[in-house]
Amino acid sequence: MNPKSTYIELLRIAADFSEDEINTIKKCIEVKKYAKGELLLREGEYSDTIIYISEGLLREFYYTPPEGATETVYLNDFESIYEDDTYTSWIMAEGNFVYNVRSFLENTPSKCYIKAEEDSVVITMPKTDLDFLLGIMPQGRKILGLFYEKALIEYERRLELLREKDTLIRYQKFIELYPHLHQRISLKKIATYLNISPRHLSRIRALPIKK
């Protein structure tokens, strides 16, 4: 099944759209490919597109200049020199919708970046087209509900992990929630997602599993 067909089938779960409505939705989405390391969103840009991951892995992160820095630095696609000063907000794989929530909802510049951690295939729907669908389709709100529901679930999962004081259990819960992610992304990026130092995370990974 091609990416657009998979996407449409997912929307059909949310609502019983007619064939005419489905054809209209198809005109509002586009398949795009991003190479590993390419940025889909930069700090200062507006997150005005709902992105669905068909293949690959995306990460949202923010950049904090090192202590003593006197100027603002904006990262470009291949400036990996700054990776040690980035902190992960979320990591998403296939089947997820992604966007910078605050920028999207408040129509403000993003304070974060979204980057392809693997070669990725995504489906995009601009906010303007989403607004168009909401205006002409009674069931369009169910699409919006699907997008927001996914974001809220991931937000709550992150909070659940950070509320766990035992860092070993925090890491184990991460593996349970996202069993394949730890094999697809660096230890440093997982550590910043879990608010654990990379050195400490490396150490606790070798400890026996807690029941």
TrEMBL record:
Q: What is this protein called?
A: Cyclic nucleotide-binding domain-containing protein
Quote the InterPro entries the UniProt record gives. cNMP-bd_dom, cNMP-bd_dom_sf, RmlC-like_jellyroll
Lineage at the top is: Bacteria, Pseudomonadati, Bacteroidota, Cytophagia, Cytophagales
Q: Describe the location of the Cyclic nucleotide-binding domain by residue ranges.
A: 13-56
